[in-house]
UniProtKB/TrEMBL annotation:
Keywords per UniProt: Cell outer membrane, Chaperone, Lipoprotein, Membrane, Palmitate, Protein transport, Signal, Transport
GO biological process, one term: protein transport
Organism: Solimonas fluminis
Membrane topology, from the record: Lipid-anchor
Pfam families: LolB
Record lineage: Bacteria, Pseudomonadati, Pseudomonadota, Gammaproteobacteria, Nevskiales
Name assigned to this protein: Outer-membrane lipoprotein LolB
Gene that encodes it: lolB
GO CC annotations, alphabetized: cell outer membrane
Length: 210
């Protein structure tokens, strides 16, 4: 059974969503599982993700996404497909990135704004590194809904709403396989086909899509 929504600020995320239990009430099982799961996810400082993405509505575009996350917090995101600018690469760190497309390259501290200017919509670059793991980003308030396994079923943060439809085994944890991101501008569906390079174990190949 899913829990009621729990609004949390960044600081309270560290302590967990404990706003609905009194001092003498035990944690619900799903909340206890979430606290254990969150601690494991926060230890993931590197991974490789290969996924398919599709935007719904009038855009109706499809493509492939590859994300390489490194322990030093740098990343390399590559999009391929008919997304309005052809192949797209965004590489850097949370402070500054280089965006490369068929139009050339640009160094920017705000790749999301760059994408909005070029495409009319954007990807949540700042939060995606965490959201892809099924984890709220640590720097801003979030609202989460948990399922019975202590996994995030839905998340609202930074103007985006995410709904997680399916998780898959990936090394020592389960990670999202299918989820959807929605903003006022666009709805994006993502299917994670392959997780690799996780600390502690290599993730198995994902099963084929049915």
């Amino acid at each position: 059974m899913r829990l009621a929504w729990c609004g949390v600020a960044a600081a309270s995320l560290l302590a967990g969503c404990a706003l609905f239990k009194g001092p003498d009430m035990p944690q619900p099982p799903s909340e206890a599982r979430w606290q254990e799961r969150k601690a494991a996810l926060e230890r993931i400082d590197r991974f490789s993700l290969q996924a398919r993405v599709a935007s719904s509505g009038s855009l109706g575009m499809k493509g492939e996404l590859r994300w390489q996350q490194n322990p030093d917090d740098s990343f390399d995101l590559r999009l391929a497909g008919p997304f309005g600018v052809g192949a797209l690469s965004i590489a850097g760190n949370p402070s500054v990135v280089e965006v490369r497309s068929r139009e050339g390259s640009q160094v920017t501290a705000d790749p999301e704004a760059w994408l909005r200017r070029k495409l009319g919509w954007t990807l949540p670059i700042a939060g995606l590194r965490y959201w892809a793991l099924g984890l709220p980003a640590p720097a801003s308030p979030a609202r989460i809904e948990l399922d019975a396994e202590g996994e995030i079923a839905a998340l609202e943060q930074d103007g985006w709403r995410l709904e997680y439809d399916e998780y898959q085994p990936a090394g020592p944890v389960t990670l999202p396989r299918r989820f959807q991101l929605a903003s006022p501008d666009v709805t994006i569906k993502l299917v994670a086909d392959r997780w690799e390079g996780l600390p502690g174990a290599e993730a198995p190949d994902a099963p084929p899509v049915q």
